Amino acid sequence: MSDLRELYQEVILDHRRQPRNFREMEEANRRLEGYNPLCGDRVTVYLQVKDDVVQDVSFQGMGCAISTASASMMTELLKGKKVEEAEVIFKHFQDLVTGKSDGSDGVGKLVVFAGVSEFPLRVKCAILPWHTLRGALKQQADAVTTE
Ligand code: ZN
Question: How far is the CA of 64 from the centre of ligand 1 (A)?
């Protein structure tokens, strides 16, 4: 288990060092900001949605390793997915980081966040990009906050 934990940590730190899809998207047709006041994480999620498919997704922001890695892996995972699939993955991810599931169910590489469930304050860091994404998909007008 500790080997696995180290591996998970490495994946998270790798995404922290080199976040994927970390850019402003000028052609985005959805965009939303999210804020986690407990940690100070700020994220902006950009989406290009067409025919109910996430054609492209990117993010920008400043946050801790967990929120940055979560956003980075989220963008990798969701590109090309249907909006309804994104919703299902969100649900699975939420269950994973709150300890309701072990991640064997539908989260793919995001299983590296399993350990987060042991740290209640970190759950909000991990989930922030996802809540922001969800708000953006629903074309919510107000910024997302985890509080
Ligand atoms: Zn954080």
Answer: 4
CA-to-CA distance for 103 and 94, rounded, in angstroms? Answer: 10
From ligand 1's centre to the CA of 14, what distance in Å?
16
Burial 40-72 (b: 16+ CB within 10 A, else e): ebbbbbbbbbeeeebebbbbbbebbebbbbbbb
Q: What is the pLDDT of residues 33-84, one digit of tens each?
A: 999 999 999 999 999 999 999 999 999 999 999 999 999 999 999 999 999 9
CA of 48 to the centre of ligand 1 (A): 26
At residue 81's C-alpha, the angle toward residues 39 and 112, to 5°, is: 45
User: What is the tally of helices (H) and strands (E) in the chain?
Assistant: 4, 4
- H/E element holding 130? helix 120-137
Q: Mind listing the domains of the chain with CATH numbers?
A: 2-145 (3.90.1010.10)
Residue in the block written with tokens 């956003």? 71
